[in-house]
Amino acid sequence: MDIKREEIIWLAGLLEGESCFSVGTRSVRRGVGRKFPRVQVNMCDLDVLEHARKASGGLGTPIQRVATPSRLKKEKEYGWTPSYSWAVQGETEAYALMVMVYPWMGHRRKARIRELIELFKEYVPDRHPNLDAPEGTHWCSACEEYRDRNRFSPNPQRSSGLASYCRRCRRVQYHATKKAKHEFTV
């Protein structure tokens, strides 16, 4: 992709004044978070955000309208202009954007970009036990150990296709819940 130098300089100017360079956290199963670098711009000028996304070579999420209930209420009651958001996040896209605009950023933004790049280099995300599971096994969240995959019920809603508890732990949980409900009603 061939991006013109003038477009990159324009984008750097916009990001210098209107963006937030931060570390985002993505929830990955039961509170195990995965961190990633993030560049975000919020503004009322949709055409400027569209130009910025095009100038970046199409990086980031599609531009979204900020539509929180309180924001929509203020737009209706006080005639506020709609607000829009564009985010570039993740190890590859945010890094590419930061490196692209770095030479034209001010001292403060350059320091923040260097800080994020160093943090990202040093950061090793927390890994879910199933990502390192031995072949033919699956992590049981109840007994907190790897068990044979055939000891789990199928669950098509989970990415692994298996339940989070093994059949034995699920049976123990089921009977404990049933007993507690019975004691409560009697």
Description:
With 186 residues, the chain is of the alpha+beta class. The protein contains 6 helices and 8 strands. It has helices at 5-18, 46-55, 69-78, 93-101, 107-122, 167-185; strands at 19-28, 32-43, 64-66, 83-89, 137-140, 145-148, 152-154, 162-166. It has a 4-stranded antiparallel beta sheet. The protein has a two-stranded antiparallel ribbon with strand order 5-6. β7 (152-154) and β8 form a beta hairpin. The chain is elongated, with a radius of gyration of 24 Å. It starts with a helix and ends with a helix. The mean pLDDT is 85.
Question: Which labels suit this protein?
Answer:
alpha+beta; elongated; 186 residues; two-stranded antiparallel ribbon
Topology, please?
Layout: H1 5-18, E1 19-28, E2 32-43, H2 46-55, E3 64-66, H3 69-78, E4 83-89, H4 93-101, H5 107-122, E5 137-140, E6 145-148, E7 152-154, E8 162-166, H6 167-185
Antiparallel strand pairs: 1-2, 2-4, 3-4, 5-6, 7-8
